[in-house]
Amino acid sequence: KGQQLDLSSDTPAPAQSSAGGPSEAGRTGQFLGIRFDCCGVYSRIYPNRHGDAYEGRCPKCARAVRLAIGPGGTSSRFFSAS
Question: Are 45 and 55 in contact (CB under 8 A)?
């Protein structure tokens, strides 16, 4: 029958990679949703290794996006990149 899509905000426990450390998705556990207006697609972006910005690329044309993390920011989780 129908398929289910779970949109809950609970973050699963970090997964362990074969090297014994957390996997990339488990390492961050946080993401921002971005609608790339350039190609009309949605994707998630994750914090960079330094933890000072969310960085990612459009999955179709590879256009880069970077959102700084810092005091005075926003609690929004979804954005549009034009």
Answer: yes
Q: What angle do CA 41, 42, 46 make, to 5 degrees?
A: 135
Do residues 48 and 54 make contact, with C-beta atoms less than 8 angstroms apart? yes
Nearest to 28 by CA among 15, 18, 41, 42: 15
The pLDDT, as a whole number, for residue 9 is 47
CB of 67 closer than 8 Å to CB of 80: no
Name the amino acid, one letter, at 37.
Answer: D
> Is the Cβ–Cβ distance between 67 and 45 less than 8 Å?
yes
Contacts of 26 (CB under 8 A, 6+ apart): 12, 13, 14, 15, 16
The residue type of 40 is G
Mean pLDDT value of segment 52-74: 93
